[in-house]
Amino acid sequence: MAKQPMLKFVTTSKEMPTKRTPDERREDFAEIYREYAAEKAQEQASRCSQCGVPYCQSHCPLHNNIPDWLMLTATGRLQEAYELSQSTNTFPEICGRICPQDRLCEGNCVIEQSGHGTVTIGAVEKYITDTAWEKGWVKVGAPLEERDQSVAIIGAGPGGLAAADNLRRAGLQVTVYDRYDRAGGLLTYGIPGFKLEKDVVMRRVEQLEAAGVQFVLNCTVGEDISFDAIRGKHDAVLIATGVYKSRDLGGKGADLNGIVKALDYLTASNRKSFGDEVEDFDSGRLDAKGKRVVVIGGGDTAMDCVRTAVRQGATSVKLLYRRDRDNMPGSQREVQNAEEEGVDFVWLTAPAGFEGTEKVEGVVVQKMRLGAPDLSGRRSPELIEGADYVEPADLVIKALGFEPEELPALWDVPELTVTRWGTIRCDHTTHATSLPGVYAVGDIVRGASLVVWAIRDGREAAQSILDYLAAPAAVAAE
């Protein structure tokens, strides 16, 4: 009888890839996890219980066929595992690195719920695809047959790139317009290298270019080219701009020098990793070296900021968050990594203002306590009167989330319908907007969300665009 290759969670313990030591990690922006060896990846994949109802798959926005590619990995059929992973996920090596698996697939793993420790799904996914790149299994998605219809994609982030990949494979002519000088969106300029090294993103962009996707970079729609001009040049348009408008922070002294936006700070750091000249960094404005840094916020962007500040050589790094550890939106795995690297989390605190003359010198901190749950189910913070204090600071980073830009006004297209939050209103099945032949995906529809959701949206919208362009009556009616 053949030996059972799976269900080894009882005899084999969960084991993540080893992390570099905190002292090592603080010195550079390289990824913190080492690679699995082949035997270790196979061993960890074999812990999967092969559930009849795989909750890991149902809680993955892409519905990746996780149990099957774990079984293929456990039995040494790695190329098949990669091909199965790639069939539902345009960028599995990226999701394996940055998805909050502790909130999605791994957090819903049956053996995790039974106390045996989750299968390390993200680490195995990363191993599969990294091996696929090394072995040459990742092929350029060039079409078998060309079509003369063209699609414009506005935004070169994960949603736009996922759609570009699917549309190009189907033979359409695809042009991606983006405001930055490199494609990738927040994958390139928002997420630090210690979570996602930039060559991982750039090789996907290069592959899309090799497949025939055209990139028009340093191009701001509404300034360098009008939205109407783009519609006139293409048979369909996909809006995948993301949300880049930072939420602001009021209070006394909020306009002092030294109080900066998280995205400005992270973009400057990532540009330096490419070797770019960055005036605001080189002048010290967006460099944390030698400074007492305070980050305000509790999401994944705040985690990126505190860990970047550590690597830049900050004297101290503190994060203020108005709820406690159990009620914060950011990944608990990221909190642990940040604490190991020396970040001080100051729970149940919120800024009331800032002190300083021309430059920030301190944050006026209010202490909070948790009251009754709000509509999200999390307990609401309540102010503790008379418990304010001043936290010294030389650099304050606002990581309060992002809001959509006013695209109908910026693009002079008032007929583009938006919600009361400013996100684009669209059909959530087809991703069609109020404009014929115009679709929208990702954060500009959902609000600030996860990369994996943007990839799902992009893949779905690509299929809707293909269906739309395959209907001659719909095109003729334009």
Any idea what the shape is?
A: globular
Structural class: alpha/beta
Uncertain residue segments = 473-478
Q: How many domains make up the coordinates?
A: 3
Number of strands: 16
CATH architecture heading of the largest domain? 3-Layer(bba) Sandwich
Main sheet strand line-up: 3-2-1-4-16
CATH class of the largest domain: Alpha Beta
Mean pLDDT reading: 94
Largest sheet: 5 strands, parallel
**CATH topology label of the largest domain:** FAD/NAD(P)-binding domain
Computed over alpha carbons, the radius of gyration is: 23 Å
Residue fraction in strands: 15-25%
Calculate the terminal CA-CA distance, rounded to whole Å. 64 Å
Give helix % range: 25-40%
User: CATH homologous superfamily of the largest domain?
Assistant: FAD/NAD(P)-binding domain
Tell me the number of helical segments per DSSP (H or I, 4 or more residues long). Answer: 20
Keywords: 4Fe-4S, Iron, Iron-sulfur, Metal-binding, NADP, Oxidoreductase
GO molecular function: 4 iron, 4 sulfur cluster binding; metal ion binding; oxidoreductase activity
Pfam families: Fer4_20, Pyr_redox_2
Cofactor: [4Fe-4S] cluster
What do you see in this structure?
With 478 residues, this protein is of the alpha/beta class. It has three domains: 22-135, Fumarate Reductase Iron-sulfur Protein, Chain B, domain 2, CATH 1.10.1060.10; 150-243 and 404-476, FAD/NAD(P)-binding domain; 248-398, FAD/NAD(P)-binding domain (3-Layer(bba) Sandwich). The chain has helices at 22-25, 38-45, 55-58, 66-74, 78-88, 92-98, 110-113, 121-135, 158-169, 186-189, 198-210, 227-233, 262-273, 279-282, 300-311, 332-340, 407-410, 443-446, 451-469, 472-476, and strands at residues 150-154, 173-177, 214-216, 236-239, 245-246, 259-261, 292-296, 316-321, 344-347, 349-356, 360-373, 379-383, 389-392, 395-398, 402-403, 438-440. A five-stranded parallel sheet has the order 3-2-1-4-16, with helices on both faces. Helix 13 crosses helix 15. The longest helix has 19 residues, at 451-469. The radius of gyration is 23 Å and the shape is globular. 45% of the residues are buried. Mean pLDDT is 94; it is low at 473-478.
